[in-house]
């Protein structure tokens, strides 16, 4: 069974990196062949060869830029995963802080109902702990 790399399980970045690597290797071969087929001294003497070589060079650099963009996209996937983990942590932390605020507000309401004050007179008194 073939695994779908686009199912969101974190393998897309690996595939993009592999595609970019294959493109770069192929581009290296193309660039080497261009230098052998149309060396600079041949291009200087023939305007048609020079124009064709320039077109090939331009296409080479466009595809190279695409390969580099694929590598960048592969790295972004990891950043997105880290951002998701950070967002989950922040949500948990917010829930915790929210719970603490809710507790404090509840205690203030209880205290208010008990003696008419919002805060106990003994709020800063450390608790008595019986540790043995």
Question: Describe it for me?
Answer:
The chain is mainly α. The protein has one domain (12-115). The protein is built from 3 helices and no strands. The chain has helices spanning 12-37, 40-45, 47-115. Helix 1 packs antiparallel against helix 3. The chain is rod-shaped and about 100 Å long. The model is unreliable at 1-9 (pLDDT under 50).
Index terms:
132 residues; mainly alpha; rod-shaped; disordered N terminus
Q: Sheet bearing the most strands, described? A: none
The rough form would be described as rod-shaped
Spatial separation of the terminal alpha carbons: 63 Å
What level of helicity do the residues show? over 70%
Low-confidence stretches: 1-9
- Name the quaternary structure: single chain
Structural class: mainly alpha
Compute the number of strand runs: 0
Structural domain count: 1
Strand-residue proportion: under 5%
Which SSEs are present, and which pair or pack?
Elements: H1 12-37, H2 40-45, H3 47-115
Helix pairs in contact: 1-3
């Amino acid at each position: 069974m073939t695994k779908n790399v686009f199912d969101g399980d974190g393998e897309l970045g690996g595939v993009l990196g592999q595609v970019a690597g294959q493109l770069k290797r192929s581009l290296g071969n193309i660039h080497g062949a261009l230098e052998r087929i149309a060396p600079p001294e041949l291009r200087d003497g023939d305007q048609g060869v020079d124009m064709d070589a320039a077109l090939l060079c331009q296409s080479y650099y466009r595809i190279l830029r695409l390969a580099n963009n694929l590598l960048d996209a592969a790295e972004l996937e990891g950043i997105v995963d880290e951002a998701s983990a950070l967002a989950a942590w922040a949500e948990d932390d917010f829930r915790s802080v929210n719970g603490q605020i809710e507790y404090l507000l509840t205690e203030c309401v209880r205290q208010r109902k008990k003696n008419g004050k919002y805060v106990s007179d003994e709020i800063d008194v450390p608790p008595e702990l019986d540790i043995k």
